[in-house]
Amino acid sequence: MSTDTSQTQVSINEINESNKILRAALVSRILVLSLIILWRSLLSPYDTSAILNPDCLSSDSDTSSESLIWPKIGSAIEGSIVWDGVYFIRIAQCGYEYEQTYAFFPLLPIFIYILSRTIFAPLVPIIGYRAVLGLSGYVINNIAFLLAAVYFYRLSIIIFKDRKTAFRASMLFCFNPASIFYSSIYTESLYSLLSLGGIYHLLSGGNTIAMLLFALSGFTRSNGVLNAGYICFQAMHQAYDAIVRKNSVGLAAMTLIDGALRSLCIFAPFIAFQAYGYHNLCRGLISDEMRPWCEESVPFFYGFIQRHYWGVGFLKYFQLKQLPNFLLASPILCLALCTIAYHVKLWLDEIVFSLGFRASHNEKNLADILYPSGISGRLSDAQVSGEISSEVSRENPNLRQRKKMSKGRTLSSWLNPLPSGTVVPVKSDYSSIIVVPFVLHLAFISAAAFFVMHVQVATRFLSSSPPLYWFSSYLVAHRGRCAYFIWAYSGAYILIGSLLFSNFYPFT
User: Fold this and answer.
1) In whole angstroms, what is the distance from residue 214 CA to residue 355 CA?
2) Count of CB atoms within 10 A of residue 482's CB?
3) Among 91, 146, 345, 496, which has the highest number of CB atoms less than 10 A from its own CB?
4) CA pseudo-torsion sign 286, 288, 291, 296
């Protein structure tokens, strides 16, 4: 009786902890949206051009401006559409009209268009069509953030098997320095949802779902195609395992082919969008009328647009006048550097330089640790939890029965990736080798943000990388003095970001 009571209490605690993440994510979005409304009401925007809405070039687009029931609310929503949000709303309303608009990928505008034409369509005569488009964007991104926070929590538990670490990291994600972009009409929330969801399903054995989510992330932002690296990392280690441990070259070849095909599927939406741009901007024109990128052997408009319209390029931003922007991005870049340096020092030879193959040879195959299902199918959450299940099984003979009962997935079970009653060992150090591919990904995008991109976007560009929050969670737990600086940094950027960004002042 006491055992059943204890198990029930553990289950209740698990549900409560998961619900806390949802509540924290919801509170963080309410906070950010409240700050946007507050700053917009207290200050005048630096640039008021965001509310301008010229007619679409296509005659069949709905840009009518009939009398509205609540025009002030509509005007307020339209005025809050600033910076890149103007492009996304314009694309949702009018399609891709100009060459520079092709720098913004279509998934978010598609979702905005669908929502504005369906659920929110009755609001058009009340606040206006463009305001409905803006409202749709806000709803989509804030809901996406709530789901992304849940996926982050579930992923963190799978990685560390430690609820406290997962909870701390998830709280840091909920109140991250780039929070203003996760509640605005930007791609941060949708991209994080698709990327984190894809990684979670990959680690859980859902390779098909992971591939689909990764592909959609590449249809949301250009760097979404980098998620194919997780597939490649998996395939390399499984092929290594097939050759070294199973002595099967054929299995290794099949594994590599499978990984290559799945990676190609992830690239497919990105390639299709490039082909769509080429068809619209280059086909049917004579040579003198073509844009320079149209005549390249491999037409690639995204790189050209970034260079031509935004001056993006290797070391092009290294100018004295850009020093304030480097200072603005310095906290997130320093955190990324410390995260990478920590792991390089920790795994310098055995894992980092060998990409985990030496660890695979000496101990357990890293592919089995990272991707327990291989290509054989989806595993249960208890299997994903790794070594904790065997210990719990010995101590609790009813665990197998509970696992069978858990097949009927409910909201509470979806929020809790570990089975009810599971005793999760608390790790004393942040040293899981499972983080290797995440850190490699972080290193690549950090280098791109510093050397190639406009450096001020680093705060939001890197904000979806899990190792930043996992390492910050480690610092908060084991380096008490760092906790104050981490939370102060997040709080300051939330306040400053909501003030500057919402009033059309430059911020990351």
Assistant:
1) 22
2) 15
3) 91
4) positive
- Read off the pLDDT of residues 409-456 as tens digits, 9 standing for 90 and up: 444 444 444 444 343 344 434 556 678 899 999 999 999 999 999 999
CA neighbor of 267 nearest in space, from 232, 292, 297: 232
Tell me 379's DSSP state. P
More confident residue, 228 or 387: 228
To which residue do tokens 């025009």 refer?
A: 71
> In sequence order, what are the residues at sequence separation of 6 or more whose Cβ sits closer than 8 angstroms to the Cβ of residue 415?
15, 18, 19, 21, 22, 150, 153, 154
Burial 426-455 (b: 16+ CB within 10 A, else e): eeeebeebbbbbbbbbbbebbebbbeebbb
Where do we find the tokens 């051009």? 49
The CB density around residue 315, as the number of other CB atoms within 10 Å, is 9
CA–CA gap between residue 48 and residue 397 (Å, rounded): 66
184: how many CB neighbours lie within 10 A of its CB? Answer: 28
Residues 228/181, Cβ–Cβ less than 8 Å: no
Of 507, 386, 501, nearest to 80 by C-alpha is 501
Hunting for tokens 């990984």 — which residue is that? Answer: 259
C-alpha distance from residue 187 to each of 7, 144, 239, 325, 332 (Å): 41, 10, 35, 21, 19
Tokens for 187? 């791609």
Length of the chain: 508
User: What is the maximum alpha-carbon separation in the chain?
Assistant: 84
Q: Is 117 helix (H, G, I), strand (E, B) or coil?
A: helix
Buried b (16+ CB within 10 A) or exposed e, 85-105: bbbbbbbbbbbbeebebbbbb
pLDDT at residue 246 greater than cutoff 60? yes
Sign of CA dihedral 140, 270, 152, 508: negative
145 within 8 A of 25, measured Cβ to Cβ: yes
Please report, as a single letter, which amino acid is at residue 233: F
The model carries a pTM of 0.85
